[in-house]
Input
Amino acid sequence: MAADSPWRHSLKIRLLGGTILVAICSITATAWLSVQGTTGSIQQERGQELATDTHIYDTLLGYGATHPNWDAVEPVIAGLREQTGLRIDVTSGDRVPIARSEAGTPLPAKASAVIDPLAVDVTLQPGAGADRIDARAVGPFLLPVDERTALRSSLEVVADCLRTAGHRTEVADTPSGRPVITSTAPAEVNCARNSPIVLSGQRFQDQVVPSAPTEQKALEQLDGLVNACLSRKGRSTTKLGLTYAGKIVPMGVIGDQQETADCVATARREQLLPYVAPVSLLFISSPSGQPSDVGLSSAGTARIVGAAVLVLVLTAVVSILLAGRVIRPLRTLTVAAQRMRAGDSAARATVKARWEVAELAEAFNQMSEHLARTERQRKELVSDVSHELRTPLGNIRGWLVAAQDGVADLDPALVSSLLEETLLLQHLVDDLQELALADAGELRLFPEPVDIGDLLDQVAAAHGAELVVEKTGDLDLYADPVRLRQAVGNLVVNAVRHTPAGGRITLRGREHGDHVLIEVSDTGSGIDPGHLPQVFDRFWRAERSRNRQTGGSGLGLAIVRHLVEAHGGTVSVASALGVGTTFTLKLAKNPS
Output
């Protein structure tokens, strides 16, 4: 397979391509804006067309809401054709012609709207009610002239009172013929007199009023339909009322109001069905059947193309200049990375840029320093382990060779000495295994309720030295008692090793808010302040010349730190030369 071209994955090419893409998008947006600017009048015309379509739909919807069929719709459609100059066709749901503009001309593939007074298209009639029934579809609620006259006479008295009080008031008719008052009067104005109508601010329109005989008869029929629906759903029956504004509402609803509202809407459709025209399809199109095309002139197109080419050229120039500034620091980083791969742990990247690549260079330098430090610690670990193993292995080998050559006898004393060296090796291996498990995150804990006071007593008894135990507060927490005893034991061993005869070692347990503090204090030789940051490092000893008999393996405090951190706690040390040292473990009572 042929090698990839170095330009294929070049950052310069990618930046150039990305910038050009952005420029193309910008040019496209600019061209679109230009087209919008030059065709504003056309868009305005299209908006007018939409308004015209809405007017046609509303007119025919009103006809269907007030007529039981489409038999006399032709004059209405003819008038709309004359007003709009558009081709208007109405068909049944299965496209059987009801009123055609041009006989023999095929209908458009898709209807402009569905005319259904009982299911209004809310996109064309956004003010429709929640039940989507056209307000003009009143059916049996249509009042005869005598009832309208009686209601209007009653309301005119109220309206005159409100006008006399200085409030703008009008009386208008609803689609059913019921007159209503619209007034600016506040709630406390009462002009109802002996009329059952009570003014109450905005709620005036929603108050239930006594219905006229025609309305009462229609309400009784609707009550039956609604209650039949509610009974089928296992709901309590209700009674309907008519508001002052002519709205039908259930009174005293018990239970699910939505189910009641659904039944009212279903019953109204069933009641109104004989009074409205059947569902039909509305087709609106231009007389030719084809929409007019809109395009740019040749001069306008040439101007847009010229501007696009100019922007592309400028973008390419800027991209090349920008890519050069990006690539230079990246090359510096690449050279430093190659030096590091070749084994140069001192490789660093010096970048003068002040943007994101500078952060990348800083991260690279920190990584390089971390790797160098890790490599140094690895070498020191190998050296320390070798040193720790060499002495006991040398002792064991020397005595075994002497016994083999007959220079020494394998008497009980020699066997005991060799066993002690073996135990030292085993202890070192165990410590290393503990640290390896901690590093790998596999140090297993078995937490359970622990009384730190009892734990400190057990540690003091196990070491047999003259240890003082002090306990204050609630010392119960949730931890692994074996691992915690091991951590405190390591600190006690360290304190005993560095405390001279006659010194004092104290184990303290005390409550500290939501934590428990465990302190191991001694009056020993103390630690130099400059060495305190290193006390928890592996194989560290205050005196490098110490051997295992005087200075330990150098792993005990490192193990303490890992055990405490595994419990979610912290360990700290405070010391003064010639005064003593205090190690403090801080553990949460209820670790998360």
User: Anything to note?
Assistant: The longest helix spans residues 356-404. The radius of gyration is 48 Å. The chain is about 50% helix and 15% strand. Residues 194-203, 289-294, 545-551 have pLDDT under 50 and may be disordered.
